[in-house]
Amino acid sequence: AVAAAPGWGKAHLNLGIGLEASGATDEAIKSYEAALALEPAEAFANYNLGKLLYTLGRLPRAEQLLRQALGSRPEFPEAHIVLSRVLEAQGNPGAAAVALEAALKLRPDDIGALHHYAGVLGKLDRPDDAQAALKRVIALDPENADANYSLATLLLARGESDNAEPLLRRVIRRDPGSVEAHSRLFDIYHSRGDLPAAVAALERVLALRPDWADALYN
Fold first, then answer.
1. Cα–Cα–Cα angle for 13, 15, 17, nearest 5°?
2. Mind listing the pLDDT tens digit for each residue in 152-169?
3. Distance in angstroms (rounded) separating the CA atoms of residues 203 and 197
């Protein structure tokens, strides 16, 4: 199609998508750039190239492209989400939170965006808001191991071990090989003085990761 109609931006865009999916990154970038040369405001070409450059660590250019995508198509939740990743990677969690809030207005039940939002809120020292976001994830997906673990970690940092324990057990039910969850249970049991349970938790950790120095030391 590109050979027959070199001025057809959509063909360059779709060729870029195919090349990126096949791992031909450099060629995909060239196709996206060709699409943008023909249609500079094309939202999906800006988004796809911005997302690809983010994965390559080319953050300032990725941010520029994603903002151009949103300039053409403000109601583009995926672009807001990737922009938040770019901004966070550039050390700007406040701006990342704003981008995620824009995404969540458009897609309130996006579990990935909510979980990422909780992490950004933690960096901004907003633990109450982070906890609310994680609870929203768990309400949508009660067995989400990552969200349960993140919430348990947040609760432990606030001294709420009784509330954290059932969340960690839910993580282990979903992912029995989670050494981190077993290790956190050890912390809870050890702080309570329940040494037999603490030893049992450590033995589970070491069965999964025999050379983990911290667990051996404990």
1. 75
2. 999 999 999 999 999 999
3. 10
